[in-house]
Amino acid sequence: MALDQKTLNKVIILKLAGQLPGLRQAMLSDAVMDSLQMNFFEYSQALSELIEGKLLYKAVRKREPHLDADQQAVERIDITPKGTEVLQTLEAQIPEAVNKWIRRKVDELKGEQNLLETHSSRLRQTGTGEWLLILERYETEVPNFTISLTFPTKEMAKKAASAWEAASVDLYELILKHLLAN
Hints:
Helices cover about 50% and strands about 20% of the residues. It is of the alpha+beta class and about 180 residues long. The protein folds into 2 domains: about 5-115, Winged helix-like DNA-binding domain superfamily/Winged helix DNA-binding domain (Arc Repressor Mutant, subunit A); about 120-180, no CATH class. The protein has a 3-stranded antiparallel beta sheet with strand order 1-3-2. Strand 5 and strand 6 (about 145-150) form a beta hairpin. The protein is elongated, with a radius of gyration of 20 Å. It starts with a helix and ends with a helix. About 20% of the residues are buried.
């Protein structure tokens, strides 16, 4: 029996969340919009109903080091045991074309997720009115590289944070190369 569109929307979200634990909410919404299976309103409604039904949960993790563009800790989406149970029941009814898209999207998002989770930047104002920028690199849950920089203006600190976000791997390697040069 084929799933109705509203149920299919929810199953797509459950499957993505189930295969990508700790997925950032922004990444989930972008992925779902890319599916062309639902619009933003339908996605928002499905996500809300899944959270209210305790099939998914949305939360900011304790000591979340990763911030969004507004310097707020990122919200993550995870599937609950109840959500996993529902997904297992309905999974066989997902059309093959949608399953194929989900497999491709999961592979793509895993790469994006790994890249995003390897670095972070945090910004805060100091007691002297300057801006402290903390840049970090991760190989596990714990940062293996941290550097703190002070800037006279918020704009300069944000520009440096953006550069770090865009090229943290290259900048990290360049810094290490210069620090460890003979």
